[in-house]
Amino acid sequence: MKKTIAVFCAAVLAVHCCGCSGLQKKFTRKKKEAVRMPRIYQEKKYEKKPAAELYQKHFSFWQGWQSELLDNLGANHKKDVRCIEEVITNLSDMADLLIEERGVALKSRIAKIAKARDLIVHEDLTQYNRVYIRRTLEREERAIKRDFTLHKVEGLLKKSSRDAD
């Protein structure tokens, strides 16, 4: 009996010292390595679009962002900031496609919208500021739609987008 207990204790001690990590490793799933596909880049020369097409594209984007900003003003700060930044970016791109005189006129409109952007970015949307921003955006929207539609500026565009750069 003493011999059996001694053998049992020796076996327990041997298992304890050696551990079961080898046994545990044997029965655990190994992670599969992700197969990475090589990236293939194809160089392609893109044709520059005429300024009229780019102008119309930026005008359409501006209208979408402007209407979204006016519809949801004050509901979500991050969304307001994104919308006002996109509005100004698209208007700036439109101004770059116009000849110098008309571009300056549009940039003066952009400067008025930039004042509203400062209020939005600094999270200063009190009731008074919200009304001020909404009226400013609506006023500038009417003026831009009146003076800067593609039909009105068609003869005042640079010949191609290369001239805009």
Brief summary:
With about 160 residues, the chain is mainly alpha-helical. It contains 8 helices and no strands.
Verbal overview:
This protein is an all-alpha fold and 165 residues long. The chain has a domain at 51-160. It has 8 helices and no strands. Helix 4 (77-97) packs antiparallel against helix 5 and helix 5 packs antiparallel against helix 6. The chain starts with a helix and ends with a helix. The mean pLDDT is 86.
List descriptors.
mainly alpha, 0% strand, 165 residues, 72% helix
Q: What Rg do the Cα atoms give?
A: 33 Å
Give the helices and strands as they follow along the chain.
HHHHHHHH
Instruction: Summarize the biggest pleated sheet.
Output: none
> What is the mean predicted local confidence, pLDDT?
86
Please provide the count of β strands: 0
What does the overall shape look like?
A: elongated
Layout of secondary structure:
Layout: H1 2-18, H2 21-27, H3 51-72, H4 77-97, H5 100-121, H6 127-147, H7 150-153, H8 161-164
